[in-house]
Amino acid sequence: MSVETPIFGEGAGEPGADLIKNTTTKDFMADVIDASRERPVLVDFWAPWCEPCRQLTPVLEKVVRASKGTIRLVKLNIDEHPEIPGQMGVQSIPAVFAFKDGQPVDGFMGALPESQINAFVARLVGENTEETADLEAAEAALEAGDVNAAAQAFAEILQGDAENAEAAAGLAKCYIKTGDLARAEQTLALVPPAKAESAPVASARAALELAKKAGDTGDVDSLRAKVAADPSDPQARFDLALALNASGDRQGALDELLTIVAKNRAWDDDAARKQLVQFFEAWGATDPATTSGRQKLSSLLFS
């Protein structure tokens, strides 16, 4: 008699075992993309040699089992299956990405404590709190360009919770928007070490590095003219991408870097692809430009 294997199964008989499984490159679409249309899926990128991964994975499993079916966990060994983490720009592990409705929407790096993972999952499944609502309002203000309102809201959150990494990251981005890079750096330096590798802080840090780079590239118009004069000059196109991003034209920045990858990926030690990954980190997993850029980059790299 044959025994049917559950779609999600690992350790039959354990509470929540149907919510946790290992996956492969071949099964990633079904296990993560398709499955996330039913409920959120956490993807744990790990490797056997990674000690922090060994610390994080049991905590992830505990939190997922305690979620009573509101979320799933899928684990991918990057040594055996490097294609997917390569496409997603995973550069260090452990790295956890959250997927909803077929798209990556959030994530973090490093072995976070259980309390932070619980908070991460609560946000993901929509268990809103007053502080979460305040954060969302502050982020909406920043996205709308109301930097002063956003900065004030983030600062108020930090007054009540000095270790709130999302608020610190948001406040740092406000300083970056105003060109005060020194205060942005000071703000990020106040983030507790345990939260220094969280997705919001990594995003703010990447945005800060981009702002520093943009100051050395020149203005958009002169760089456009330089690229028009010599379309085969990858450095001019690379500098234009940085300047376009600094001006807020994310799609334009994407297009220039993707052109370099398509024409000469090996240029300057794969610099264009690496810069795209930094863009994605700075913009955040949920930004439409990140989603579009990851898809286009994957098409170029694996076509």
Would you kindly provide a written description of the structure presented here, covering whatever features stand out?
This protein has 303 residues and is an alpha/beta fold. It has three domains: 17-124, 3-Layer(aba) Sandwich (Glutaredoxin); 130-213, Alpha Horseshoe (Serine Threonine Protein Phosphatase 5, Tetratricopeptide repeat), CATH 1.25.40; 220-292, Serine Threonine Protein Phosphatase 5, Tetratricopeptide repeat. Helices cover 57% and strands 9% of the residues. The chain has helices at residues 28-34, 51-66, 83-88, 114-124, 130-143, 147-160, 165-178, 181-189, 199-214, 220-229, 234-246, 250-264, 271-283, 288-302, and strands at residues 20-22, 41-46, 72-77, 95-100, 103-109. The protein has a five-stranded mixed beta sheet with strand order 1-3-2-4-5, with helices on both faces. The longest helix is centred in the N-terminal third of the chain and has 16 residues, at 51-66. The radius of gyration is 20 Å and the shape is globular. The model is unreliable at 1-17 (pLDDT under 50).
Describe the SSE topology.
Blueprint: E1 20-22, H1 28-34, E2 41-46, H2 51-66, E3 72-77, H3 83-88, E4 95-100, E5 103-109, H4 114-124, H5 130-143, H6 147-160, H7 165-178, H8 181-189, H9 199-214, H10 220-229, H11 234-246, H12 250-264, H13 271-283, H14 288-302
Parallel strand pairs: 1-3, 2-3
Antiparallel strand pairs: 2-4, 4-5
Helix pairs in contact: 5-6, 5-7, 6-7, 7-8, 7-9, 8-9, 9-11, 9-13, 10-11, 11-12, 12-13, 12-14, 13-14
Descriptors:
Serine Threonine Protein Phosphatase 5, Tetratricopeptide repeat, 57% helix, 3 domains, Glutaredoxin, alpha/beta, single chain, 5-stranded mixed beta sheet, disordered N terminus
